[in-house]
Amino acid sequence: MDLSIKHTSPSGGWGVAVICLFLLFTSCSSHRKLVHTNRPNYPSAEPPVADNFAEKNNERIREQAEKPSGGYITYTALQYIDRFKTIAIQEMNQYGIPASITLAQGLFESGNGNGDLARYANNHFGIKCTTDWKGEGYYKDDDQHNDCFRVYKNPESSFRDHSEFLQRKRYAHLFELDKNDYIGWAQGLKDAGYATNPNYPKLITNIIQKYNLDAYDRPEGEIQKIRREDRVLSQINNNIGKAAKDSIATANAPLPANKVYTVVAGDTLYNISRRFGVTIDQLKALNNMTDNNIKLGQKLVVAP
Questions:
Q1: 0.85 surpassed by pTM
Q2: Which candidate, 117, 118, 147, 116, places its Cα nearest to that of 41?
Q3: Which of the residues 92, 243, 258, 275 has the least number of beta carbons within 10 Å of its own beta carbon?
């Protein structure tokens, strides 16, 4: 299939105009609704939370993000590329995902880095909270009201998590492609179910071609390719079976016999709420808590 920017639809110039308008809108504040139809189906295991909790939580996350810099610098598409191209190249060299694909997806999903998730949560790919996520969450309407999205300490962590997300069995065949085959990757992501929009490959390749992002893709020799495939596919094989932990069906752990859970190292109120299928507000109410602080050995009632 010819996915180049020269492709025209049966309606002629109108097809190109529609695509251009679509790309324009993805970089503005209304981006969320567009992402909703194209974002991969990242499974979420976060029970619904109350609006007042989500609002207070998000306000705290925003304050934390703004304190170090005193404010957020708005990116243009070119500034975004310049800022994150090195990270995308590092991920390509480590995992084999074309840097052009990573950059194009970042531009598309984050609205050139200016969407709320990128600004406040350092989340450039819309990855949601799952049962194995131990970090903080940022709440935003998506598939459900107050969906939980991962909060990262820095953008680099978001790019790495995106690479590791693709290390799933259904994407394994993509890592057998050359790491400068962005057209194959764009189409392969769609075929593997990464996005529901049938135009997703064209949207991504158009961004790549518009900004010449394939200039950051680097071919590899046959020996390098074999070594990289062996390394990444071995990692994917090791991950097989772990993805089930991400599903909401396994989020609700068996309740202790006495409905009381003892806090262990690494626990947070957030993780405990997901483990037992209750909201944080419910946990706090059950235990007469006024904040989210817990301590090692603390006994928590986890069910009414």
A1: no
A2: 147
A3: 258
